[in-house]
Amino acid sequence: MSLSQLHVDRRISRPFPVFSKPLALCGDPNKCWTATDTLDGNDSVDGRLIIRVAFLNSKFKERDRFVEDTARQWELHANIKFKFVLPSELSEIRILYGRESWSYVGIDALDYDQDEETMGLKYIEGNSKANQRTVLHEFGHAIGFDHEHASPEAKIPWNKKTVLEKLKGIRTREYIERNYLRVAHEATLRSPFDPESIMMYRIRPEWVTKDGATAKMATKLSTPDKEWASRFYPFPESERYLECRGLNGGNERHGSKLETIKYGDNSVRRVNKKLNAYLKGLVRRTFDAVNQVAG
């Protein structure tokens, strides 16, 4: 874990309540995975970016298979390939089943050790729709997408006092501010508002000050979700890929030039993240080996 970041501040979690109506796919290209970030890089056959995924506390193969099959829906629209490996193998995304669902966003996962989870999944036995929603939403975060209601394009008229009162006792104020009321950094790219995005939270009528600003909880990828997944992870044969991954198609919104320049050292950041993760893993394995010999 990076000493400059607090663990809790890097999470984007799925809320307790269900959701209702507003926004569009929003993300920071600097958090998207590239071949230099992953252990396997691009597939030698089809060129897809391979992202390794491991279940840290796997107990039921049927549950794991559901998560794997659901996550692969992103592969239909993004030039990526999830490679599910054993927990003893190195991986980029590490899943821990538990009482809450959450995920680090994109390459933020590189800040954590191989024995630390980068995603939590709350699996509800017998509720395939809720489970599909959870998996698609959290894997959306894992490949770099923010909450849809956080998009600057959403402009949700929150009734902040009501939201804080309704969720008091269920969530902390810090959680509510970060996962509900926050507006994404202006350096993000985002599509026009998409109320049916899988990255959207349910928003109840009493939580907003304007009629029609509610949102239901989606259980599948919306058309803009699919389109923008291909913009962030373009296929080689597409025109978007030939645009040097500029993600420019004419209908996206950009953050300020100043803030975009702020991320100009991204390639260095990526290398440092990967090197840091490798060195920490090496030290841990050496320490374990010494202990085994001593024992």
Defining key terms:
single chain, 295 residues, alpha/beta, six-stranded mixed β-sheet, two-stranded antiparallel ribbon, 8 helices, 11% strand, disordered N terminus
Give a quick summary of the entry.
The chain is of the alpha/beta class and 295 residues long.
Number of strands: 8
Strand order of the largest sheet: 1-6-7-5-3-4
The Cα radius of gyration reads 19 Å
Reading the helices and strands in chain order gives EEEHEEEEHHHEHHHH
Mean pLDDT: 77
As a percent range, the share of helical residues equals 25-40%
Write up this protein.
- The chain has 295 residues and is an alpha/beta fold.
- It has 8 helices and 8 strands, in the order βββαββββαααβαααα.
- The chain has helices spanning 61-71, 128-142, 160-167, 173-181, 223-232, 239-242, 257-262, 266-294, and strands at residues 11-13, 26-27, 49-55, 80-85, 93-97, 102-104, 119-121, 189-190.
- The strands form 2 sheets. The chain has a 6-stranded mixed beta sheet. A two-stranded antiparallel sheet has the order 2-8.
- Helix 1 (61-71) links the parallel strand 3 (49-55) and strand 4.
- Helix 1 (61-71) crosses helix 2.
- The longest helix is centred in the last third of the chain and has 29 residues, at 266-294.
- The chain is globular.
- It starts with 10 loop residues before the first strand and ends with a helix.
- Mean pLDDT is 77; it is low at 1-24 and 244-266.
